[in-house]
Every structure is written in structure tokens, then in C-alpha cells.
Amino acid sequence: MGAGTSGRLGILDSASLPSTFSANPNQFIALIAGGNQTIRRPHTNEGVEDSREAGIADLEALLPYPQDTLIGITASGRTPYVLGALARAKQLGLLTVGLVSVRPSAAGCEGNCEYVIDAVVGPEVVTGSTRMKAGTATKMILNMISTGVHIKLGHTYGNLMIDIQASNTKLVQRARRIIRSIASEFTLPPTYSGIMTDDEQLDVVVRRCSGSVKLALVVIVSGWGVDLCKDALERRKGFLKAVLEDVRYETVVRVFKN
């Protein structure tokens, strides 16, 4: 959560996660001081950033759990809206992270952040305009955090996005490339050998899997039914690499048995 540019950058990063990683929109929530109307019209309600109570109220409205994490984004390190939310989050038992562009900072000195990321970028070209260097550094750090989280959650295979939502022509083509790149590492069952060159056959499999690239890969590599492949992914908590290793092992065992 943040105010002004910091809040907008949080919204920008979280908004891309559902299409990139099939993330649950309710799992990564961005808050900006003054509400959504300040995204495009900052002059309407941006003064809310001066209220610690507003930050607390916005956080509490989400009914957070102790297992949640709050990242408070404040380039100046002292925005009251963010500081109030961080203090309340600590009281509620959340993991608290401060993302600032100065050192020392109020966010760090108040003792409400378990971790402080202080990206000190130096004076801005236009004095005080933290949408510039500080904003760029903030965007990069948020990208690193959200990408790292999704790698840990099993939403990638190597450097490939295996949980993308193929919602337009560009992403459909990307999904095909991802599937073919990974499938080429395996000896495919005869039923699916044509998918390496036949777009229509590949698209049919993806549709059978409700658009899931990850599930389609398990179906294609294993030759198993969709439901069995879903069970295999659930058993491995969604980690494709582990499931494909299981498939490879079962294939080897079957060959030796025969």
C-alpha cells in the first residue's frame, strides 16, 4: 500500500499478476491513499495520505490474517497513511515490509517493519519528484518481489510462465511456444506427437484443460486423462517440474516391466 506514485506502482504490479501467473486477485491486493479515484485524478483525494487513521482503516477493511504480509511503499519513508497501516499490521501479527528510498527513514525507525528495503537513489532530476528515480527503483523491486513469490509458488518452469492466461492472440501463441518448448524435453505418447507442429491439435488439448498451460503439459507428456493429471498436480502442490519427474519415472518403470 502507498500514496501517490507509490500507491500507483503497487496497483500496477498487482494488476498484472492474474494474467501473468493466474494469481488469485484476492491474494495480492493494492491499496492507495484516497481510494481508486486518486489513480487518475490525484488532486481529488490525495490529502488522505496525511492520515495514519485512514491507512489503518483501509487495512482493517480487508480483514487481514496473521499469515498475510503488508508491504508499505513510501519513497520519503514517512507517509502517515503508510506508517499507520504498518503499525496496525504489526499489532495484528502480519509480516511487515517497508519499501523506501531514503536512509534513515521513519518507516525503519518506528520499529514496525520486520524488513526495510531502502533503495537510496539520490536526488531526483526534478527535486522532490519521486515518480522519477525513486519510482523506477520501486517498480523494479516490486517486480522482483512478486516474481520471486510466484517462482516459489510453482508458477514457472525454468524461465517460462506456465500459468499465463491465454486471453488474446499474442498469449495464445506464447502458450503454444511454452508447451512445445517443455514438451520437446520428453518422448511424447503417440496420441500427442502431432502437437509439435499442429496448432489445432494443441489448442484442442488446451481447451480440454480449461485454458491451463500447466495442465495441458501434464496431459501431453503423460498421456493420462485430464482428471488424473489434475490429481497429480494437486499432489505436488502445483509444481510442474515435480509432476513431470513423476511422469518420467513411471514411464521408465513401465518400460522395464515390459
UniProtKB/TrEMBL annotation:
Stored CDD domains: SIS_Etherase
Keyword Lipid metabolism: no
Superkingdom of origin: Eukaryota
Keywords: Carbohydrate metabolism, Lyase
SUPFAM superfamilies in UniProt: SIS domain
Annotated Gene3D superfamilies: 1.10.8.1080, Glucose-6-phosphate isomerase like protein, domain 1 (3.40.50.10490)
Single GO cellular component term: nucleoplasm
Span of domain SIS: 1-155
An individual GO BP term: response to fructose
Single GO MF descriptor: enzyme binding
InterPro entries membership: Etherase_MurQ, Glucokinase_regulatory_CS, MURQ/GCKR, SIS_dom, SIS_dom_sf
Record carries keyword Acetylation: no
Stated name of the protein: SIS domain-containing protein
Organism: Dendrothele bispora (strain CBS 962.96)
